[in-house]
Specification:
The chain is α+β, with helices and mostly antiparallel strands. α1 packs across α2. The relative contact order is 0.13. It has a five-stranded mixed beta sheet, covered by helices on one side. It has one domain: Gcn5-related N-acetyltransferase (GNAT) (Aminopeptidase, 3-Layer(aba) Sandwich), CATH 3.40.630. β3 and β4 form a beta hairpin.
């Protein structure tokens, strides 16, 4: 069966944000040195700020990936803003664990690119943690290129 993207409902968003907030908080602990409590707070506040009207937030494309009646994942993209007038941005793409390895993330990105092309959006960007080699490989195979890079080193306060 073919994967399709459908607009996300508010109920779907509320359900899906639980795992997004948890996963992002875990990444902040591992990759940015946040305490678990600070990471949970930061994760929740950033998502609330980015989606102030939930699923109906203006400029947010929230889509559920489906194969037939089965939800296999989802993608969240924002349309260009005054700060980035030519670039849409992938905030999150997720394939549910039991559906991974079947090309669904690739297809969701291709479908969102087609939707952006219809809207005459010329560029799509994203961030990815450097340790996420599977995602990096996918993005490179889809034509994404590194446009900036952040590096960090933890310093032991004891010397």
């Amino acid at each position: 069966m073919t994967l399709t993207l459908t607009p996300m409902t508010e109920q779907e968003l509320v359900r899906l944000l639980v795992s997004l907030e948890e996963g992002y908080a875990e990444d902040l602990v591992v990759h940015r040195g946040f305490t678990p409590e600070a990471a949970r707070e930061r994760s929740a506040s950033q998502i609330r700020e980015s989606l102030p009207a939930g699923a109906t937030t203006e400029g947010a494309l929230l889509r559920v990936g489906r194969v037939g009646d089965t939800e296999v994942g989802w993608i969240w993209v924002t349309l260009p803003t005054a700060a980035a007038p030519r670039q849409a941005w992938i905030h999150n793409i997720e394939v549910h664990p039991e559906h991974r390895g079947r090309g669904y993330a690739r297809r969701m990105i291709q479908l969102i690119e087609a939707e952006l092309a219809q809207r005459e959006v010329p560029e799509l960007g994203l961030n990815v943690f450097g340790t996420n080699t599977v995602a990096i490989g996918l993005y490179r195979s889809l034509g994404f290129e590194v446009t900036s890079q952040q590096m960090a080193k933890r310093i032991d306060p004891a010397g």
